[in-house]
Amino acid sequence: MTRKQKRLSVIVAGLAFLGAATGLTFYALGQKASYFYMPADLTTTSVQPGQRIRLGGLVEKGTIQRGQGATVGFSVTDTQKSVKVMYTGILPDLFREEQGVITEGAFGPDGVFVADSVLAKHDENYMPKEVADGLKAKGVWQESKSE
Amino acid sequence: MVETGHFALVLAFALALVQALVPLFGARTGNSRMMAVGGPVAVIGFALTVLSFATLATAYASSDFSVANVWENSHSLQPLIYKITGTWGNHEGSMLLWVLILTFFGALVAVFGGNLPATLRANVLAVQGAIGATFFLFILTTSNPFIRMNPAPIEGRDLNPILQDLGLAIHPPLLYLGYVGFSICFSFSVAALIEGRIDASWARWVRPWALVAWMFLTGGIAMGSYWAYYELGWGGFWFWDPVENASFMPWLAGTALLHSAIVMEKRSALKIWTLLLAILTFSLSLLGTFLVRSGVLTSVHAFATDPTRGVFILSMLTLFIGGSLALFALRASRLTAGGLFHPISREGALILNNLFLTTATATVLIGTLYPLALEAITGDKISVGAPFFNLTFGPLMVPLLVVVPFGPLLAWKRGDLLAVAQRLMAAFAAALLAVLVTALFIDGASAFAALGVGLAFWLICGALTDLAVKSGFGTVAPDVMLSRLVGLPRSVFGTALAHFGLGLTTLGIVGTLCFGTEKILSIRVGETVELSGQTLRFEGLYPSQGPNYSEDRGRFALLGADGSSTSEITSAKRLYPVRQMTTTESGIKTIGFSQLYLSLGDQATDGSVVVRLWWKPLVTLIWGGGLVMMAGAAMSLMDRRLRVGAPSRRRKATGAVPAASLP
Amino acid sequence: MLFCVIAAILTLGASLAVLLPLAGGSKSPSAAGAHDLEVYRDQLSELDRDAARGLIQPAEAEEARAEIARRILHLDNAGPAARAAGPSTTARLVATAAVLAVPLISWGFYSELGSPDLPSQPLSARLAKNPADSSVDELVARAEAHLAANPSDGKGWDVLAPVYLRMQRFSDAVAAYRNAIRLDGDSPARQAGLGEAIANAAGGTVSAEAQDAFDAALKLDPANPKASFYLAMGLAQEGRVPEATAAWQKMLGTLPQDSPWRDAVEQALAESTKRNVAAGEPAKGPDAGDVDAASSMSPQDRQAMIETMVAGLDEKLRQNPRNAEGWMQLVRSYVVLGKADQARDALGRGIAVFGPDSEEARKFTAFAASLGLTATE
Question: Which residues bind heme (chain A) (predicted)?
Answer without folding.
Answer: 122, 126
